Each structure stands twice: as C-alpha cells, then as structure tokens.
Amino acid sequence: MPDSSGPHPTPAAPAEKKPLTIVMGCDTFAPDVNGAARFAERLAAGLVEHGHDVHVVAPAASRRHGTWIEEHEGQKMTAHRLRSWRWYPHDWLRFALPWMSKANARRILDEVKPDVVHFQSHIVVGRGLAAEAEKRGIRIVATNHVMADNIVEFTLLPKFLRKTFVKLAWADARKSFDRAESVTTPTRKAAEFLEASTGLRGVHAVSCGIDAHNYTPDFTPRTGNRILFVGRVTGEKQIDVLLNAVKLLPENLDARLQIVGGGDQLKNLQSMAETLGIADRVDFLGYVSDEELRQAYTRATVFAMPSIAELQSIATMEAMASALPVVAADAMALPHLVHEGENGHLFRPGDAQDLADKLESVLTLPQEELDVLKRASLRIVAAHDIQTTISTFESLYRGEPVAEPVTDAAPSVPAPE
User: Fold this and answer.
1) Considering 147, 173, 205, which residue would you say is the last residue of a domain?
2) Considering only CA atoms, which of 151, 146, 155, 152 is closest in space to residue 120?
3) Confidence of residue 405 (pLDDT cuts 50, 70, 90)
4) Does residue 120 contact residue 143 with C-beta atoms inside 8 Å?
5) Which of 150, 169, 358, 374 fits as disulfide partner to 323, beta carbons 3.0 to 4.6 Å?
6) Residues 255 and 338 in one domain
7) Same domain for 270 and 133?
8) Angle CA(296)–CA(299)–CA(302) in degrees, nearest 5?
9) Domain check: are 346 and 367 in the same one?
10) How far is residue 209's CA from residue 382's CA, in Å, rounded to a whole number?
11) What's the rounded Cα separation, in Å, for the pair 204 and 186?
C-alpha cells in the first residue's frame, strides 16, 4: 500500500566528482616535438581544462631547472623541470640523471601529494615516480609510447649487442609497468606488441586522441600535386623510401614533396635528394610553428607515412583531420588509421615502387573521387576525439572500470540488407 507518512525526499543528485591532483611523468615533453611529447602536452592541457590540478615532471629544456607555471595549449599547469643533460648521439634529446630519479620523485610526491601518478615513459622519470608512488599507496597509471627497437640506434651499441639490449630493455620496463594499476598504449596493435614484448596482460588501447576542430580541410579543386610527410627525420621513419618513391613518380604528375620536422638524418636525406636528382622537387621545412603546420596539411594533396614503427601516429591523425588521403606502410598500428581503398592505401614496408604506385593512384584521381577519400579520412579520425581520451583517463585515475573506446570507424556505406 502507498506510504502516507509524509512527503518523500527528492533523490539526491549524484555527487559531482572532485577534481584530482595529477602528477604526469615524462621523459620528453614540450618544447620537444614528437608524438609522445605532443600527446602528454595535449592530455595535460585537457585535464586542466576539466578542472584538475596537473603537475608535469620532465627534463628541463635547457640548463635552467626548477618548478614554475607553464602554459601549454592555452592552459596553465605546474612544471617540475629536472636538471638535464644533452644526449649527443641524438639531435635534441635531453635526459634527467637516472640515479636521481627516485630522489626527484620523493621530493615532488611529498610536496604535491597527488591522487594519481601517470607516467608516459618508464625509462628515467617514470621509473622513479612509479617506485616512490607505490611506497606511498598512490594510484599509478602507465602509458607506453616506446619501442625499444627505436631507442637502440642512439645507444652507440655495436649491432651484435642490439638484440640483447632490446630484450633486457623490455624486461626492465616490465618492472615499472608491474607497479601500475592500469597500463595503456595508443592502439590495440600497440597493446598486443607491448604484451608480447613484456609478458603484461590486460593492456588498454586508448587513442592519443585529436581535436579535429584545430585543423582545416580544403575541398576546393587542387592546383597541384603536393605530398606531405610530418615527423621526426630519423631512421625508423624510412623517409629514404619516400624519396626513392618520389623519384619513381611520372614527371608529368609534377609532384612536390614537403618534409616537416627535424632529426639526425636531415643532412643525409638532403644529400640523397641531390643524388637522386629530385632536390628541386623536395622541400625540407624543418621545425615549423603550429599554424605553419596546419597550413601545410591544408594545402597538401596526400599524406605519406613510410614509417615501420608507429604505435599510433599523431601526424597521420592530424593529416586525416585535415581531410587528407593517406598512403602509409602496412606496419604496426598504421592500418588502424588507413583503411585500404577507403581513405587511402597501404604499401609494402620498404618497397619504394609500391609506395610510388599507391601515391600515383591517389594523385591521378579525378577531384570527385579524391574527395571521397578525403571525406573518409574525416569520418575515420572522428572516432579518435580527444575528449573521449581525456574521459577515459579520468576514469582510470579514479580506479573506475573503463570500456576501451572504439576507434575503428564503421564503413561509410551500409551493407545491403
């Protein structure tokens, strides 16, 4: 029978979740220009925008070190810049001293008293933070952006020792990842790679995410054939394959290649372009501003990514958000973004002729067929919205269960009934 004892209280609204204090540990962070640094910067800024107190721990970008407020992506956060040294085999890398990692972590954690530690690299900064956070009962989330195979070329080790180094590096990484309550990496392919390399289980695939509104698609009829590459100019990116492919393109295409980024292979590749006789068709733009980068995407016809070591490829997502078709190596996580024949093509890794053929197939398309590929890129990249990424990490920080975001877009045309 109905309760007549008096008015029923209105159900309380769910309590608003309190903002978190987050320590984010990075071995590379802005002003460094690479995928891991860009992801950490965007995630940190997004978390601040959501009301959280974010403290970034990273090597100092110069000899000046200490704690101060920095602004990134329009958001202010606390930066704990550690005393750092240049690693001269690399063209820009600075590192914090490994034997100071735990002491630095103790000082920062005791001062900040965070709710969660999220380390973006297990090599130096993350190692100390993970060890000291575990002692203090602080929740730990870990993200892997590293392939040990990419690091080995900068160690100066002789080739016969490199396989042993890679094996030991992954075994060492496991020690830090084991301290984390949750481990993530940008794609399912990358998660499978990390699990196979370390023996970990249950790695979450969480996209680096992208704010597509920051990019400008252009559907006006193209006035030239422009190929774009964006990324570090290093060996694993296989830019030499791209230069050889440009050499193989028919001259009547009048194709021009622009390479945005810097790295240790820049002079070698400039010399290679001269040797191949294509220096007049290749522009090495080096590092550019964010606005110049967006303009480069907008004016390009097709994006090329020959790398064989992409755990996701933020540059490829930026290109797709700019409505560019993509021709990419059929390697690692790139097939998550490039759907064969839908928004571009995949080529056999290292095969310059196959890359040239796939580039030619895009560059010779009528405008209306090119626009189909361009719209497909926009649709596929929409599944990688940065807000979904931020929300997923907020749940992990609070120890809440998460469902992995679905980042493989549905087909553009429904299957017939």
Assistant:
1) 205
2) 146
3) low
4) yes
5) 374
6) yes
7) no
8) 90
9) yes
10) 9
11) 8
Query: What is the pTM (predicted TM-score) of this model?
Result: 0.82
124 and 151 share one domain:
yes
CATH of the domain at 89: 3.40.50.2000
Contacts of 173 by beta carbon, 8 Å cutoff, 6+ apart: 122, 144, 146, 148, 197, 198
Please say which residue of 165, 187, 205 terminates a domain: 205
Predicted local distance difference test score (pLDDT) of residue 60: 96
- Contacts of residue 394, defined as CB under 8 A and 6 or more positions apart, other chains included, come to 20, 47, 50, 52
Q: How confident is the model at residue 2 (pLDDT cuts 50, 70, 90)?
A: very low
Using the 8-state DSSP alphabet, how is residue 73 labeled?
T
CB distance 44 to 322 below 8 Å: no
What confidence tier does 349 reach under pLDDT thresholds 50, 70, 90? very high
Sheet (strand 75-82) strand order:
66-72, 75-82, 53-59, 21-25, 116-119, 139-143, 182-185, 204-205
Which range of residues forms the domain containing residue 265?
212-382
Same domain, 199 and 218: no
The token pair at 94 is 């600075």
In a domain, 349, yes or no: yes
- How far apart are the C-alpha atoms of 115 and 365, rounded to whole Å? 53
CA 265 to chain centre: 21
